[in-house]
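Escalation from tier 1.

The customer reports that the assembly of two entities below gives different structure tokens on two consecutive runs. Tier 1 could not reproduce it. I'm attaching the input and our single run for tier 2 to review.
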Amino acid sequence: MKTAGSEQRLAVLLPYRPAPTRMSIRIGPLPAAILCFCAVMAASTAWAQTGPTMLSPLQVIVKWSPLLLRGFAFNILISLMAMLLGTIAGLGLGLALLSESRLLAAASWLVTQFFRNAPWLVLLFFVMFLVPFQVTLFKTTIPLPDWIKATVGFALPVMANVAEVVRGAVRSIPSTQWEAAESLSFTRRQTMWLIMLPQCIKRMLPPWMNIYAIVAMSTVLASIVGVSEMLTLTAQVHAAEGGRPELFAPLYGFALLCFFLYCYPINIWTARLERRFRVR
Amino acid sequence: MQAIGDWFQRLYETTGLNFSVFYDAYDWGRYVGGLKMTLLLSITTIVLSLIIGAVGALMQGSPSMLLRLPVNAFVVVFRNTPPLVQLFFFYFGLGTMLPAVEAAGMRVPLLSNVQWAIISLSLFAAAFNVEIFRSGIEAVPRTTIEAAEALGYTRLKAYVHIVLPLAIRVCLPALNNNLVNLLKTTTLAYAIAVPETLYAVKQIWSESQNVFEMMVVLLATYGILVGILVWLMHRWERAMHIPGYAR
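Tier 1 run:
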């Protein structure tokens, strides 16, 4: 059976045109990363005037990789804790954004805008310099090491971004559901917690994971304010190996590779979830 | 001007809030210098990243595999690595590999830290811009491109005169977001000692011992800068709006 469309076609010979191929092939994550790394290695060894006693860049990285990877694990720990703190606070802030009280909504809007629009590094400085290094609560002194303060510094922008995500997700649910819940005599709080938020989780997941990838990449900022995470350790390793200039590229390349291997799968997974949960 | 300086001087004497930038000419000079550097960084990186993004999106849509592959690799790598590490990689890693040049009797690196910051930040933002432009280009109806082809446009001309103007309108909100992000990311140049606002303000607060006050000034500065950028982008968005197209 012929389709209606093919019958309506005029009997003219259309000019040959290759089928448009747009964005069909994406380079695989691992090949790309390994390719870049190898290129850097090749470039750096070409420059290296390696004497017999000096280690080649690759040997240096292999030698120090346990330390560097421990630094990377610390980065991940900071990012996970910042995300946890930020999500809890952001959920509260997001609900405050949606609150019926004008004053609360306006105040939380101001807080959200403030933390979303300030640069991360500036917020980090803000927390590092203005939070004391120890607090005394009920006569017990709790020390606040710098990495805890850095975690809080990262949690603040996360909070504001998560708040926006929560607000957007709740707003995206058809308003008829609010009316339906009201007619079933749910209170506002019950509607929010029993009806709206469970539906929102699906919509919030992809942007939430996006935020996480950004946080994971931002944790290196902590090195600027003196937390000994991966980038600080990289600089120290470089100094320990005699500060040879040709070592810079491989060492920072290694850091790039670590973050790439961590963040790229998250990104792919996010894109896949986005496609699956697409709201039509 | 004098009245403002006097007022802040009095504020310091009465309340102890030391906004030294507003009455100390030296601090003010440093602050304005930092602000100028931030503006220079933001404007150059915004323009460069838009150009690289547009060219990248054109290459990404091309039928040739050889053109698409490098762009895709570039986007994937630059989107998934921390901008600070990219900056260090460029400045320390590649910067030390480049030959030094002789200038005024001194050996100086071929590219200064400001230039490296501009290159690195533009590339970082451009990776996002490529994706943003691509999403805009995909939203341009296929029929429009066919109509352009029927009128005898070449691929490049159709891209410049028809696809890109329409695509920009579609992706302006996302672009807006990314450019604000870029403006905030210029603070990273602090890490390679580019004297931008954060750097200048940090110098001021470590000499005048007024961390809290300078922090307020710093946050307000970035708040105003972001506000101006958002306002400009919204105006542009409204000016470019075509009735009946994309909302």
